[in-house]
Design goal:
With 634 residues, the protein is α+β, with helices and mostly antiparallel strands. It is 31% helix and 15% strand.
Length: 634
């Protein structure tokens, strides 16, 4: 949409399509060009969707409602239809070769060709403990056991094993990120804490943190907390130590208290930000938030809060461009780390450490130096007395490690069809080897390694762009909200009363998105903290580059060159490049020229550093490099 819009702007540079047109009615031309561009890119992407037929039908009907022909694939290049078609073709061609393997349905390479292969067998979600686990420090995929009716003769047991979704993203081309080794992540904050070795204590503290969060998922404990922006948020990057904002900078007044039951807040937070397989997912979630910001009453659309005032269309296409460039970089950064470190998830870590025993008291049963610590009211060791009738651990076995935990969804569903409701059971003492996260039973834990948190990375990247784009860290009016009514939760009954989530700033909302995954049992704090820091970098680097597209300065990006002699008559020229720009290498026998093309054909850069091998027999040769927006020599 941005590229089609930029065709009719004298200054802005397109990302993949860089044609320019001057027309009498730019508003109508943009309406048609953007519609054709968006339609054909959506068709190209969503042909792989689970509900492709329904989606493609809806897209076609949308084009017809706009008075446009969805079947049209040829048009004069200077017409709005032609601009839209050319823009879609340029975008499609650029991303077909970006490493995501779109043409292969986004399937990773086979393992024998370098694709991902799980280190250990899958964990049956209905099993006890972690049978088959080889290394608790690495991701263990899940296998779902589904029992479905089979006519009058009984049931059929079906097994569905998680693949690593997005495992090929280690090699996907980002918007602006840089690296020197294609086998390493784009941004590397270091490894996650690991069981054994120098970070064992941190590993165990992260496991306990997830258990503690899971013990807080019931309003029955009566704990009330204030979730007002005046009490929470305003955290330093990568921390949760903020004490809120003294005043609302827009109203000049303190934020009103917002007391809620902690158990309601934790469950609402976990579900609001979950964005699982039946929703728009975190990148889409932040586009929804961006739309809400743009549509706020009285909001003025000035990039960076400065002149000039933009019309709705220019604001939208530029906001979507910068925001989604940052979200794309966040995906590349986070999933390259998931692939590289193959990090553990709480489900296996909690069950495994519990299977070892307790590490608090050598004189008690089930002692193991690497087990779970005993914490009264949270992690305990059952005894013959404690499991008796009316006792805290009634119904459990003796001498097992138990934790206070949410014990399962209200609605039990099979992906093969059929659901039934069971009473909400809340938080109880459970055998730690049966611990489950606060998720649907058909989801349990995402189908990829944990470290780092995608939610935290996406959210902080988006928050930084929104703050830069709008010119303020704060939501319009100094307050963003979302209200969940009593009984609207999907995983179980609740909340017991309406809960209004509140955020003063975009980063406050992003921090809550990261925290939601801890309460949801999906990530430990280490995944969240690293994700916030990586997302911060993604947001700012994408924003800085997006501005150069908007003001047209992209083509004049300075080029630093390094020449190294490889052998007699051979040299290697390396230079910093901008993905998508064309580069022309020219030579001369004198430093003051004249310079002539021909050493190598002009080429389009696909990385931030380009390298060219040159051969020459001249006793002395000078090389210069020029960039351009198109293949033509500038």
């Amino acid at each position: 949409m941005y590229d089609a819009w930029a065709v009719y702007d004298p200054v802005a540079t397109g990302f993949a399509y860089r044609g320019k047109q001057v027309v009498k009615d730019a508003t109508e031309a943009r309406r048609v060009a953007i519609s054709y561009a968006a339609y054909h890119v959506l068709v190209d992407r969503f042909k792989f969707a689970l509900n492709a037929t329904e989606t493609l039908t809806g897209l076609r009907q949308r084009m017809l409602s706009l008075g446009l022909d969805p079947e049209r694939v040829v048009a004069p290049p200077d017409s709005p239809e032609g601009v839209g078609l050319a823009t879609a073709a340029a975008i499609t061609n650029w991303f077909l070769q970006d490493g995501s393997r779109q043409a292969e349905g986004y399937e990773d390479l086979p393992a024998r060709e370098g694709g991902y292969q799980s280190f250990q067998p899958a964990l049956d979600t209905g099993a006890f403990g972690v049978p088959g686990l080889l290394d608790v420090n690495r991701w263990q995929p899940l296998v779902f056991t589904m029992v479905t009716p089979a006519g009058q003769n009984g049931s059929v047991v079906t097994y569905r094993t998680q693949p690593f979704l997005g495992s090929q993203w280690l090699g996907v081309r980002p918007f602006t990120l840089m690296r020197t080794d294609i086998h390493r992540p784009w941004i590397d904050p270091g490894p996650p804490p690991r069981f054994g070795g120098t970070t064992d204590a941190e590993f165990h503290s992260n496991v306990v943190a997830v258990i503690r969060a899971g013990s807080q998922l019931s309003p029955d404990d009566g704990v009330v907390i204030d979730i007002s922006p005046g009490a929470v948020g305003n955290n330093p990057l990568g921390e949760n130590s903020g004490s809120g904002h003294p005043i609302n900078p827009v109203t000049g007044q303190p934020y009103a208290p917002n007391p809620v039951l902690r158990g309601d807040f934790a469950r609402v937070l976990a579900e609001f930000w979950a964005d699982g397989p039946n929703s728009e997912t975190p990148p889409g979630h932040w586009n929804v938030l961006a739309n809400q910001v743009s549509d706020s009453p009285g909001f003025t659309k000035r990039i960076g809060g400065k002149d000039p005032l933009l019309d709705d269309l220019e604001w939208d296409v530029k906001l979507y461009f910068a925001l989604n460039a940052a979200l794309h970089d966040a995906a590349c950064a986070a999933w390259s780390l998931k692939r590289y470190y193959d990090g553990w998830r709480p489900l296996a870590a909690i069950r495994y450490t519990a299977s070892l025993g307790q590490n608090s008291e050598p004189t008690l049963p089930r002692y193991h130096p690497s087990g779970l610590p005993l914490i009264p009211g949270l992690i305990e060791l059952t005894t013959p007395e404690s499991i008796g009738t009316g006792k805290p651990h009634e119904g459990l076995s003796s001498n097992v490690i138990v934790v206070r935990s949410w014990i399962g969804p209200k609605r039990i569903c099979s992906p093969f069809g059929g659901c039934f409701d069971q009473p909400s059971r809340g938080v109880q003492w459970v055998d730690a080897q049966e611990w489950i996260p606060y998720q649907r039973n058909t989801f349990v834990t995402p189908a990829f390694p944990g470290y780092i948190s995608g939610h935290s990375t996406f959210s902080r990247a988006a928050a930084e762009v929104l703050a830069e784009f709008t010119g303020s860290r704060f939501f319009p009016g100094g307050l963003g909200t979302h209200t969940v009514q009593a009984g609207d939760l999907g995983f179980e009954s609740g909340p017991s009363a309406p809960v209004q989530l509140q955020w003063a700033t975009y980063e406050d909302a992003a921090d809550q998105a990261g925290l939601s995954r801890i309460w949801g049992g999906i990530h430990p704090p280490a995944d969240d903290v690293a994700g916030r820091r990586v997302g911060f970098q993604c947001g700012h680097s994408a924003w800085d580059l997006a501005l150069r597209y908007f003001d047209g300065s992209l083509a004049s990006t300075p080029i630093s060159i390094r020449c190294d002699r490889a052998a007699p008559g051979q040299a290697v020229v390396r230079f910093e490049s901008v993905r998508g720009l064309y580069y022309h290498i020219e030579s001369a026998s004198r430093v003051d020229g004249p310079y002539m093309p021909g050493l190598v054909p002009p080429f389009q850069a696909t990385d931030t550093v380009s390298s060219v091998n040159l051969e020459t027999q001249a006793p002395e040769e000078w090389v210069r490099i020029r960039s351009s927006l198109t293949p033509q020599i500038p």
